[in-house]
Design brief:
This protein has 511 residues and is an alpha+beta fold. It is built from eleven helices and 25 strands. A hairpin with a 3-residue loop joins strand 9 and strand 10.
């Protein structure tokens, strides 16, 4: 329909609610127990639908797409569509214990308790992802009619009794939700898209929703609203020289009815219930650009002349990546978040450093803190690729994050380089050779006399490394990193069986 309007083959439809007495409307009564699981519900009726195979498939496909995107895999909104002629109102939206819910689910030939359905659908690839939404709840949401015929158990499955077929004429649509705004958007989208196939095109029959507090409202709302946009502002931002009448025509092609106001400098745009994506005037301006065609906008030189240049730190990193790769190392990109154990116990650190940035509400144990070293990520990568032939030579150039009270956000990013050599022997000389090559590329000479000019290594004691086989990398008198043979206990903590040597140092001081 939107494409037909854009091509000028169809005028913008006007969606309206059928003018029926409130007593003639279908009613959906909300029970108090629903507040414990999915507190919101909206509904609508499409009368005199004319289904054929193509329309039916499109109807089902729209529900699937909405479930995966706007509904966030049914966690925010779950859609149920039913043959209205097979049930009798009023309808009830309730929540009951699983062992009290029993009905015949879609495409099944017998009745099941809700607990049995959960067990059965745990092996179903399509419905399995939705089970955790309500599985651990004390009550499950349920919708049934005045004869106790179950329509659906959202957000899992509809009932077989109300299954829609090609012979269905009247469709009852319900959306249960944890987000009321999303529910209203979803119901508007469905009824507006398929009301064109009703006996009276673009006419939607509302449903009276009776809330727990006995308040009532009609669903769907089908609200039109207006936005005033400035013609000169549109031309300036998009880069056009179009007249107000031309811009109004472009907006009409985007299903936004537009009219030029008497002043000739502004346009009133009517935003239909199908365009919930239009939130601000800037969204209207974007639609003008889309309708005009981005490729049709004249290219102009900017009035300000600037010379682009690569950020020096990024340029240095790119040059280093190329040279390290030529030395036989493979670059990896690991997660910025890790567990507390990854940067403490697994590295044989007695306590967690005080400058670690913690995640306030981690979703898993694997992402509790922001990494303070790149080494655990590379060791995990090696552990996951043990089947690859040795040697495994990996490197990463990326940020670590530490707390810093002197910054406005309380944290500071530090750009580091980390390289690991995994082979049948530790290969400390291989890592040492990489360090020498890096210093050669950075034009830092070797400080033979250790006078603070150039670089040298000095013995260090770090529990992550083998005793006596760890050294600090000192550049111009400042320690910038460590190099050594990784301790066997650390390797075992990361499920590694082959010895490894590593190098990790800061990059920013070399600019």
């Amino acid at each position: 329909m939107g494409l037909m309007v854009f091509q000028g083959k169809l005028s913008i439809p006007r969606f309206v609610k059928s003018q029926l007495d409130v007593a003639s409307l279908q009613r959906l009564i909300v029970k108090p127990e629903t507040a414990r699981v999915r507190p919101f519900v909206v509904a609508a009726v499409l009368r005199g639908m004319k289904f054929d195979e193509q329309i039916y498939n499109s109807f089902i496909d729209l529900q699937d797409k909405l479930h995966q995107n706007l509904c966030r895999k049914r966690s925010l909104v779950a859609i149920g569509t039913h043959d209205l002629d097979t049930v009798k109102g009023p309808f009830y939206y309730d929540a009951k214990p699983p062992n009290e819910i029993r009905f015949q689910p879609l495409n099944q030939n017998k009745e099941f308790f809700a607990t049995e359905l959960m067990e059965m659908y745990s092996k179903d690839s399509h419905l399995k992802p939705y089970l955790p939404i309500i599985r651990d709840e004390p009550v499950y949401p349920i919708i049934y009619d005045s004869n106790n015929v179950v329509l659906s158990m959202p957000p899992i499955i509809n009932g077989e009794h109300t299954k829609i077929t090609l012979k269905t004429k009247n469709v009852f649509i319900e959306c249960t939700a944890t987000d009321f705004t999303k529910a209203k958007i979803v119901i508007d989208t469905i009824v507006c898209m398929f009301s064109q196939y009703c006996h009276k095109p673009f006419v939607i029959e509302p449903v009276e929703i009776i809330n727990v507090d006995v308040s009532k409202y009609l669903s769907p709302e089908i609200i039109y609203r207006s936005e005033i946009v400035d013609v000169s502002e549109i031309n300036r931002l998009v880069g056009l020289r179009e007249s107000p009448r031309s811009i109004a025509h472009l907006l009409t092609k985007m299903c936004l009815k537009a009219e030029v106001l008497e002043s000739g400098e502004k346009i009133r745009v009517e935003i239909p219930p199908t365009r919930h994506d239009v939130i601000h005037a800037c969204d209207v301006i974007e639609d003008v650009a889309i309708a005009f065609g981005y490729n049709n906008i004249a290219k102009t030189l900017p009035k300000t002349a600037t010379i682009a240049n690569q950020f020096p730190l990024n340029k240095l990193c790119d040059l280093l990546r190329e040279q390290i790769a030529q030395a036989g190392y493979t670059e990896v990109h690991t997660f910025s978040l890790c567990s507390r154990d990854d940067i403490s116990d697994k590295l044989k650190k007695v306590t967690l450093s005080s400058n670690v940035v913690h995640i306030a509400n981690p979703k898993t144990l694997e992402f509790q803190v922001v990494r303070t070293t790149l080494l655990p990520g590379i060791l995990k990568t090696i552990s996951s690729n043990k089947q690859i032939a040795l040697p495994l030579k990996l490197f990463e150039i990326s940020d670590v994050v530490v707390c810093d009270e002197n910054t406005d956000v309380g944290t500071r990013n530090i750009l580091r380089l980390c390289a690991v050599n995994c082979n049948r022997t530790p290969g400390f000389e291989v890592i040492h050779g990489l360090l020498d090559r890096l210093m050669q590329l950075l034009r830092v000479s070797f400080d033979v006399r250790k006078e603070g000019i150039g670089y040298h290594i000095r013995a260090s004691d770090d529990p992550t490394f083998f005793l006596g086989r760890c050294s600090e990398v000192v550049v111009n008198g400042v320690s910038l990193g460590k190099m050594g043979v990784i301790h066997p206990e650390v390797l075992l903590n990361f499920e590694l069986t082959m010895p490894c040597a590593s190098l990790e140092l800061d990059i920013e001081p070399f600019l």
